[in-house]
Model the fold of this input.
Amino acid sequence: MDLFDKITKSMGGPIGQHQKWSHGYFSFPKLEGSIGPHMNFNGKTHIVWSLNNYLGLADHPEVRQADAQAAADYGMAYPMGARMMSGNTIHHEELENDLAAFVGKKAAFLLNYGYQGMVSIIDALVDRNDVIVYDAEAHACIIDGVRLHIGKRFVYQHNDIDSCEKQLERASRIVAQTGGAILVITEGVFGMTGTQGKLKEIVKLKDKYTFRLLVDDAHGLGTMGETGAGTHEHQNCVDGVDVYFGTFAKSMAGIGAFVASDKQIIDYLRYNMRSQTFAKALPMPMVLGLRKRFELLRSQPQLREQLWQVALTLQKGLKERGFDIGNTNSMVTPVYLKGDLYEATSLTRDLRENYGIFCSIVIYPVVPKGLIILRLIPTAVHSMEDVQRTLDAYTEMGEKLKAGLYKEQNVA
Done:
């Protein structure tokens, strides 16, 4: 009996039986194949609507096998160096080439982390003579990247093209004097509201202004477009997006990210993104595991179709029950409620403890006082039963909220 068998035996049995892999109050049963979006929390089973697993690949048996085989073959240390030194492999390069072709670009560069990657992309692309124009509701990684910029930066109102154009006019006057350039930054799908960035309309502004467009499509890769290539494919403006950023943490249920563009820009980033140039390369199990995930993303469109069936059924049901889900036109499903902080925490605890529904909550100061957002993230492995149970729970929760019951301490 080898060490792995001894460990699994001590945890309750061989691989394939229900075993608890716990961390804090959370635990997930380890099963053969996909286990669906369920989680144990404080000893109870919950339907989870806050997992980064759009296509259900986290527990796909082929993914699990690829991850395990790569770990067995290479361990977690290899390759032992930065990509520019001793850390490059044919597998890293082949994954980059495949990703670039998929999203319609000439070249791509693997990044160790999504958040850090976006910060570093922005830092590398601009200097003091350049101007950044960005969406007001951009993700925190974009905001942090913009903060590093020592030149001018202008924010436009969320998805407001007139506001974007006004900022482009200001930026154009400045770069005419500095000799710099303009970088416009937005998202493909905004992860909080579910609205798509108006990529096609921004691209149209290139008829009047000179700028490059950087799109963070963390939520769009694998979910949007005819082939899942992203929001720019969905909006038919692939060529207009100059720099495309995708993460492996959402549809591909992994770690890391990539940036894709023309070869000149990618070559520049390889040698000027300090957080990548001087960082160890992605370990081989991650790279090979990502290659399997990417293969399934492309070869099994039914996963994306199932995701959208779940998302649209959930959204339709919520609207029929009178819930405000805003202007989402993606699978991200926010539910907007009115209430104070105490009501917000009470109703989420009620959903969790009494209905077995676990979802993300967004409250002040992220949103204005008096507003509550419950964000639901559908996946391909949610079932129609999961959707119905959630809709029934939300209906009762909404009635309690309107009746003021969540102001009382004994509700949950």
